[in-house]
Design the sequence.
């Protein structure tokens, strides 16, 4: 059996079975599929997209026979390894959505994402999923003139779309422990949570609703009304494909998504006095305005959980366990955290981990349902999936049940992203993008002005 606790700090910090904790989790795999079965809905992938879809379908129609098919254990992928931001962020910007779908559709998407943060909090409270959910908002630090200009521009741009809750704060009202911060923005539409507690707790809830989760059951392929696994075939009227970055491992979805690695570190717990000096409160997440994305939170047990991009894309969209850990990237993250918050300079790093997230060619997440084949899909979250998966579950439920709702009419429904280029173009383009963002940050530190390199790359990153 794999040591699933080694997947991330989040898995390692789950209460162990036998502790008497209501959320205790022994991480033992559930039984795998033993033979052919027939169900109403077969869900491929036991992460948050699949589990939220199972939750809303089973809640809406308890008579449905629903099976979740998972290669490892529930939450094995990005759902159990992410930064713990339950935010209103959508990978395609509001401006990009407006260009593609119109102003009203773009604003509706933003409002749906804000409501989704509230919905996750509502469901976790109602279902007794203790996942450290605290809606404390996101602080985005502006460190240097170029970042301060970007912060002001972001607030102005938000106002164009009627978004009035994004606030600009000067240095005096920003975290005092952030080095070189000229100010910040504050977005209240974000909650800090513990992702492994969420995904593992949600798996238990859907089982209580009558859903069967088959773990250690690898799916090989699918077609209308049938899923072929390594053990047996599953007949189903509806099939939901919810693989995110791991879709690149299967021929049918190989070029629909690119697996981009994001890595994280967690520190030892800090004292409350140190956190007061830093200026980050419980429930708050944080980032800055650099182009090579970083993200962090103050965990419920007072650690920094901090991550970022920078790991290279691997030829052929390959996904391997050794790619989860890149010492050079971990060292970069530790240096970056200390540069932002000097109080973290001598803090011990206790956990290092990573994993792939899913990137569509146009950085536009989507949901879809083909009534003729009965096949539904959702994904392409580009790292913004902790909340978006919930909206995906509700959207797919409405589509599968043929319900005409505001959610089923959102602009990401039935959006089809272009395919990624074949190799070597995919390899060159993906790694060039990472390099360009590194250059853009260096350019802005040197000049104090907005990067030319970043402006050239913007159309390729959903902006």
Sequence:
């Amino acid at each position: 059996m794999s040591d699933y606790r080694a997947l991330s700090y989040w898995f390692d910090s789950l209460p162990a079975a036998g502790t008497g904790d209501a959320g205790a989790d022994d991480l033992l795999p559930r039984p795998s599929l033993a033979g052919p079965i027939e169900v109403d809905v077969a869900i491929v992938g036991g992460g948050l997209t699949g589990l939220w879809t199972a939750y809303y379908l089973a809640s809406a129609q308890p008579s449905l026979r629903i099976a979740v098919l998972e290669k490892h254990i529930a939450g094995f992928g990005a759902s159990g390894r992410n930064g713990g931001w339950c935010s209103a962020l959508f990978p395609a910007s509001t401006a990009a959505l407006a260009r593609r779908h119109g102003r009203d559709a773009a604003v509706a998407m933003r409002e749906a994402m804000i409501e989704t943060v509230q919905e996750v909090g509502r469901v976790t409270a109602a279902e007794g999923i203790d996942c450290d959910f605290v809606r404390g908002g996101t602080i985005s630090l502006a460190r240097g003139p170029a970042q301060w200009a970007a912060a002001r521009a972001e607030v102005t741009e938000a106002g164009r779309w009627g978004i009035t809750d994004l606030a600009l704060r000067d240095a005096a009202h920003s975290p005092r422990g952030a080095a070189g911060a000229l100010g910040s923005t504050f977005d209240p539409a974000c909650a800090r949570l513990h992702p492994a507690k969420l995904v593992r707790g949600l798996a238990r809830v859907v089982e209580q609703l009558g859903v069967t989760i088959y773990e250690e059951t690898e799916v090989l392929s699918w077609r209308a009304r049938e899923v072929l696994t390594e053990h047996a075939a599953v007949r189903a009227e509806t099939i939901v494909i919810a693989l995110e970055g791991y879709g690149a491992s299967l021929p049918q979805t190989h070029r629909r998504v690119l697996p981009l690695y994001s890595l994280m570190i967690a520190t030892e717990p800090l004292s409350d006095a140190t956190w007061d000096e830093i200026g980050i409160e419980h429930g708050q997440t944080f980032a800055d305005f650099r182009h090579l994305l970083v993200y962090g939170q103050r965990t419920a047990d007072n650690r920094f959980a901090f991550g970022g991009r920078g790991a290279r894309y691997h030829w052929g969209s390959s996904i391997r366990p050794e790619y989860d850990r890149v010492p050079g990237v971990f060292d970069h993250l530790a240096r970056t955290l200390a540069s932002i918050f000097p109080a973290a300079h001598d803090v011990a790093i206790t956990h290092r981990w990573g994993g792939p997230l899913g990137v569509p060619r146009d950085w536009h997440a989507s949901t879809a349902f083909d009534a003729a084949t009965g096949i539904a899909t959702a994904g392409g979250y580009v790292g913004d999936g902790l909340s978006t998966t919930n909206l995906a579950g509700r959207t797919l439920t409405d589509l599968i049940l043929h319900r005409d709702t505001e959610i089923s009419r959102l602009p990401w429904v039935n959006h089809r992203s272009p395919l990624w280029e074949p190799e070597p173009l995919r390899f060159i383009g993906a790694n060039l993008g990472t390099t360009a963002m590194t250059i853009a940050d260096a350019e802005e530190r040197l000049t104090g002005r907005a990067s030319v390199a970043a402006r050239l790359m913007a159309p390729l990153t959903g902006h």
Q: What stands out?
A: Residues 440 and 451 are 5 Å apart (CA to CA).
